[in-house]
Design a protein that fits this description.
It is rod-shaped, with a radius of gyration of 22 Å. Helices cover 45% and strands 11% of the residues. It has a single domain, classed as Orthogonal Bundle (Arc Repressor Mutant, subunit A), CATH 1.10.10. The protein contains 4 helices and 2 strands. By secondary structure, it is mostly helical.
Length: 92
């Protein structure tokens, strides 16, 4: 005589992720939104300014601009060399 196991339905993977992730994020609170806001500023921003404000390393800033903003979101990012030799990036 063996005990019968009680079988319960397991939640799907979508149900699991829905519980973990917040339903709505406030606009402008993510680091990518902050990056985009800095690049939309008329004066633009340098890699050093963005790195300092987002607490990212410079290669992470360049990767986010190239991958997320350019390739995934389709934005055009322009850069120009300032008088002091630094590059200033802007969303066109």
């Amino acid at each position: 005589m063996t005990k019968q196991r009680k079988i319960t339905a397991k939640p799907t993977s979508q149900a699991k992720t829905a519980k973990r992730t917040p339903k709505a994020r406030a606009a402008g609170k993510t680091k990518l939104a902050q990056l985009q806001a800095m690049l939309r500023h008329p004066d633009g921003a340098t890699i050093e300014q963005i790195s300092k404000s987002l607490d990212w390393q410079s290669h992470s800033v360049r990767g986010a601009m190239s991958g997320t903003l350019k390739k995934k979101q389709g934005l055009t990012i322009r850069n120009e060399k300032a008088d002091d030799g630094r590059r200033v990036y802007r969303i066109a």
